[in-house]
């Protein structure tokens, strides 16, 4: 546990949902709810003002869609992580949210303790997914494997948390070559960043391959 609590912003258009979340999460000694929002516009405004560590976001909101909120947050506040907490696990919502850069995707039927653990995992750099969501993501990426063998090697090392410089050393490649491979991997997988690429590796059993 760190000295500073995890600062949370709750975004849901149902007051009772926000109240329930706040009541439970504020019982956690390592968490602090710094604000609540009922719409995407409010979420963006409060994020600018409060700079939470994690935005807990329902993806179905009045006005601006949750996926658009994720895109704005990731573009304007890259240090703020976004966890989707919603009732829907269809691919028409899951895949755009994952590609927009959510750091986790949970359904509202998640156990309260599991929610707290998932938020801790996100704060530590993890990417928790509800099993139904994980199945939706994997169904979209495992029909064909778009990566070359070398790109798979690079992806495996991305999943281990290695930088481009360390990957270059591990694979005896020029760093600019590794950078090109990383760009190709992100483009082929249709993901926004290294975290989402690492998720692909973990879910496809590549993260520990060859270790």
Give an overview in words.
The chain has a 5-stranded parallel sheet, sandwiched between helices. The chain has helices at residues 15-25, 40-50, 66-76, 91-100, 112-123, 131-141, 149-159, 164-171, 175-189, 194-203; strands spanning 6-11, 31-37, 54-57, 81-86, 104-107. 52% of the residues lie in helices and 13% in strands. It is built from 10 helices and 5 strands; from the N terminus they run βαβαβαβαβαααααα. It has 2 domains: 6-139, Response regulator (Rossmann fold, 3-Layer(aba) Sandwich), CATH 3.40.50; 144-203, Arc Repressor Mutant, subunit A (Orthogonal Bundle), CATH 1.10.10. The chain is α/β, with parallel strands linked by helices. The chain is elongated, with a radius of gyration of 18 Å. The longest helix has 15 residues, at 175-189.
Q: Radius of gyration, Cα only, in angstroms?
A: 18 Å
> What's the CATH superfamily of the largest domain, by name?
Response regulator
CATH architecture of the largest domain: 3-Layer(aba) Sandwich
Q: Could you list the spans in which at least 5 consecutive residues all have pLDDT below 50?
A: none
């Amino acid at each position: 546990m760190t000295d500073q609590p995890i600062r949370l912003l709750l975004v849901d258009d149902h007051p009772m949902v926000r109240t329930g979340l706040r009541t439970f999460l504020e019982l956690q000694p390592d968490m602090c709810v710094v604000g609540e929002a009922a719409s995407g516009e409010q979420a963006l405004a409060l994020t600018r003002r409060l700079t939470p560590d994690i935005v807990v976001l329902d993806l179905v909101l009045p006005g601006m869609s949750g996926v658009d909120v994720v895109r704005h947050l990731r573009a304007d506040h890259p240090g703020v992580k976004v966890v989707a907490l919603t009732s829907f696990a269809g691919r028409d919502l899951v895949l755009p949210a994952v590609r927009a850069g959510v750091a986790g995707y949970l359904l509202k039927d998640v156990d309260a303790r599991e929610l707290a653990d998932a938020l801790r995992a996100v704060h530590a750099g993890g990417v928790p997914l509800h099993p139904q969501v994980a199945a939706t993501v994997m169904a979209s990426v495992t029909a064909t494997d778009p990566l070359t063998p070398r790109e798979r090697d690079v992806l495996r090392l991305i999943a281990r948390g290695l930088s481009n410089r360390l990957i270059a050393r591990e694979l005896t490649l020029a760093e600019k070559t590794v950078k090109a491979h990383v760009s190709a991997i992100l483009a082929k997988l249709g993901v926004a960043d290294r975290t989402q690429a690492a998720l692909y590796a973990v879910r496809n059993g590549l993260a520990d391959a060859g270790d």
